[in-house]
């Protein structure tokens, strides 16, 4: 079919919207890409909100499809495992996998987004408009209105994609459409987050191990740090909003913040000369999971990425899931091109259960990172899994989710939870010592 | 404390808001009761929407507390069980309990609401305003605005109750308040409902058994009927909205409707001379479950009844749950009067899990009513449970939910599901025949 005749509107030029625009431009569609914020390549708008992300195999698969992955790798810092910092300041590295070559990458959200926009702009069949918030959508007519300067303009498209993130305007239209029977849930953790910094050394070097995701797990609260190319680390503090001895509400003075860090994160405090300024300048973010259904309105519009399934950041999969959305969608466009109704229905049928799965996995991993990574049984389990991954065709739950882009999130969840359950039972019941590795491998194998 | 000094605003004069107003008026508070619709005692506004309801022990407990239950019983028609109608037109009665005196009551929503409003009006410390929709609430200031004729007026209160049902304005304010971390879910069944009628005989008599809740279970669809005092039955058809062989979308002509009823509900069709008119005049309703949290804003406002927890109608507990809300709340007012923050927090802590439980139970019972009531294993189970209830201190799940107002919904759910699981296993594995009743009773006893 002649795709150049079809006008596609994509709302949101973030990571998901940009990759989607790129892929559909490659397929020859006429693309209108609208973004409410200004062009991030011209102004710095990150301002203390998740400025680096973990980029891994599902995301790589999607960027490969769009032919841009080789340009992304130079922006990445490989992280081979979790560097756990105990309260006494001791550290140990817990590898992400027992196999070499299985690692995740720290990448700057802004740089990656800029790269995708640069690629999109190379296509003549794409029109990008920044500073143009969507003010409403008429679902039946496939018409959206946008603010541009002080006027409102309408835009009609054959198909509309809502890639407009957590606060999606398209999702709100679905929500308000009684006839859609729109099932929707939003769930917040009692914890919020705040971004802080470990600055680079004056020489440009890193103040602590570069090739790791650092974690200070403390039960009720947690600090993490991911490396940036410039030698700095972006640090995130996870803490209850209120109602606890230590909470964002309670930590309201310089003295309280410093004393909290001295008590809980002494080794990190030494690396954070700007802690107090960062703490009081940066906002507290919420941690929410959004699930909804349907994602589709009659083959006319589709929710994609965070707009369809916002997840908490604890599996490092938010961006990867959104990129994989584009990959899965592209497969159905290949199959049913010309029939958006079929494309969207098939996409939702496959993808909904996987989006639900990664949403659940991310919440579960919050508790794992916060509580378990420093727990002896958990350490024992990681050690055995590492040996299994080295010697057998075994993948831990983390590896299944992160490195097995050929397996869906929902399968990875099912298989991974089964393995975890059996393995932890063997450890807790002290049976593990009596078994050789091959026996353990056979015991925990999950035959789907 | 001197409660007469405290101004209480209740939004919504439906069943829950009216009972709440009555109880708080009895406690001496200054009550402002606002209702968006007109006074149902002066105009008929039911128009084909759930005009009779099942009134049972939890509701009775709450109306007893308010001292009005004796005025309600004359409005009730006891229903001793489910009268199941097979596709061949055969009927059998499945009692709700093996104990005499355990039955549910069919009552007109309008008449019960009118009675409660009459009782509320007897109090000088209550001001009721009809035709006054709430247009917004400032949570921090505890100020609500209402439309009255063509003007907007503000009302300030010490405490605001949102008893304004599924479309609650207070709940929408909570939803839009980012700082509240408002967790929310709405879930719709693929089925909708439409109300129909079996009219009274010209003599005023009933065309079929009066003292039963009639069910025509057909797997994918279901018809039910509840008796009214005037000899008629209110009939409800549950059917998928669209996408099935028989759906509200498909049944769009007189011929199709009549032929569907002739095929599936032949004995009902004979009793429904106005079927076609009813079908095309009455709207299709949605069946949704709403859960949310928190219900409370800082001891200033509280969601109650359907506004906090809308449930599908399949356990006949929607009204009873809302009445029980008032009962539970009243207990904490008694305990902590003067400290609304404590009252609301304690109330939510106790009640949230029970509201979740009845929401889940109601959805589960949809599948039970639709599919299982005519199934041989299910019939066998009901028969054994009937015998157990006759001879032992045993309560089926249905009885625990419906007749044990001293047990919370969440406990009833846990205990009931355990019993059902064990009993059904004994039946499916054909072990049940080898056991005497006392042994069965001991096997399925759930010690919480």
Automatic annotation (TrEMBL), chains A, B:
Q: Which reaction does it catalyse?
A: L-kynurenine + NADPH + O2 + H(+) = 3-hydroxy-L-kynurenine + NADP(+) + H2O
Keyword terms of this UniProt record? FAD, Flavoprotein, Monooxygenase, NADP, Oxidoreductase, Pyridine nucleotide biosynthesis
Where do the FAD-binding domain residues begin and end? 7-357
Q: What enzyme category does the UniProt record give?
A: oxidoreductase
E.C. number: 1.14.13.9
Give one Pfam hit by family name: FAD_binding_3
Gene3D superfamilies to which the protein is assigned, alphabetical: FAD/NAD(P)-binding domain
The pathway is: Cofactor biosynthesis; NAD(+) biosynthesis; quinolinate from L-kynurenine: step 1/3
Has the keyword NADP been applied to this entry? Answer: yes
Q: What cofactor does this chain's UniProt record say it requires? A: FAD
Concerning InterPro entries, the annotation shows:
FAD-bd (IPR002938), FAD/NAD-bd_sf (IPR036188), Kynurenine_monooxygenase (IPR027545)
Oxidoreductase found in the keyword field: yes
Q: What superkingdom does the record give?
A: Bacteria
Similarity comment: Belongs to the aromatic-ring hydroxylase family. KMO subfamily.
Spell out the HAMAP family in the cross-references: Kynurenine_monooxygenase
What function does this protein fulfil? Catalyzes the hydroxylation of L-kynurenine (L-Kyn) to form 3-hydroxy-L-kynurenine (L-3OHKyn). Required for synthesis of quinolinic acid.
Q: What is this protein called?
A: Kynurenine 3-monooxygenase
The organism is: Urechidicola vernalis
Which lineage ranks, top first, belong to the organism behind this chain?
Bacteria, Pseudomonadati, Bacteroidota, Flavobacteriia, Flavobacteriales
């Amino acid at each position: 079919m002649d795709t150049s005749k079809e006008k596609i509107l994509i709302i949101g030029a973030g990571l998901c919207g940009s990759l989607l625009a790129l892929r559909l431009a490659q397929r020859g569609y006429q693309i209108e890409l609208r973004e409410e914020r200004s062009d991030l390549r011209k102004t710095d708008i990150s301002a203390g909100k998740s400025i680096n992300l973990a980029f891994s195999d599902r995301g790589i698969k999607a960027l490969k499809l769009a032919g841009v992955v080789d340009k992304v790798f130079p922006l990445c810092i490989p992280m081979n495992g979790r560097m756990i910092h105990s309260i006494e300041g001791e550290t140990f590295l817990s590898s992400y996998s027992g196999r070499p070559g299985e690692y995740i990458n720290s990448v700057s959200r802004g740089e990656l987004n800029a790269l995708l926009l640069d690629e999109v702009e190379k296509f003549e069949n794409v029109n990008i408009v920044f500073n143009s918030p969507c003010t409403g959508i008429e679902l039946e007519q496939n018409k959206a209105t946008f603010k541009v300067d002080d006027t409102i303009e309408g835009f009609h498209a054959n198909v509309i994609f809502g890639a407009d993130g957590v606060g999606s305007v398209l999702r709100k239209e679905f929500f308000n459409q009684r006839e859609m029977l729109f099932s929707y849930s939003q769930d917040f953790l009692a914890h919020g987050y705040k971004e802080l910094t470990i600055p680079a050394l004056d020489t440009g070097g890193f103040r602590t191990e570069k090739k790791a995701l650092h974690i200070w797990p403390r039960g009720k609260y947690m600090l993490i740090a991911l490396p940036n190319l410039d030698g700095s680390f972006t640090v995130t503090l996870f803490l209850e909003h209120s109602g606890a001895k230590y909470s964002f509400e309670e930590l309201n003075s310089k003295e309280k913040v410093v004393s909290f860090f001295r008590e809980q994160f002494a080794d990190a405090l030494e690396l954070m000369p700007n802690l107090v300024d960062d703490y009081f300048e940066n906002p507290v973010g919420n941690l929410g999971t959004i699930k909804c259904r349907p994602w589709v309105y009659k083959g006319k519009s589709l929710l994609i990425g965070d707009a369809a399934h916002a997840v908490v950041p604890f599996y490092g999969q938010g961006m990867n899931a959104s990129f994989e959305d584009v990959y899965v969608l592209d497969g159905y466009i290949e199959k049913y091109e010309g029939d958006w109704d079929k494309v969207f229905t098939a996409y939702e049928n496959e993808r909904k259960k996987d989006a639900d799965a990664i949403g659940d996995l991310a919440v579960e991993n919050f508790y794992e990172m916060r509580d378990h990574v420093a727990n002896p049984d958990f350490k024992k389990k990681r050690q055995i899994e590492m040996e299994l991954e080295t010697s057998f065709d075994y993948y831990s739950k983390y590896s299944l989710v992160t490195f097995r882009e050929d397996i869906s999130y929902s399968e990875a969840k099912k298989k991974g939870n089964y393995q975890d359950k059996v393995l932890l039972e063997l450890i807790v019941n002290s049976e593990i010592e009596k078994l050789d590795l091959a026996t353990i491998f056979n015991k925990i194998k999950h035959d789907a």
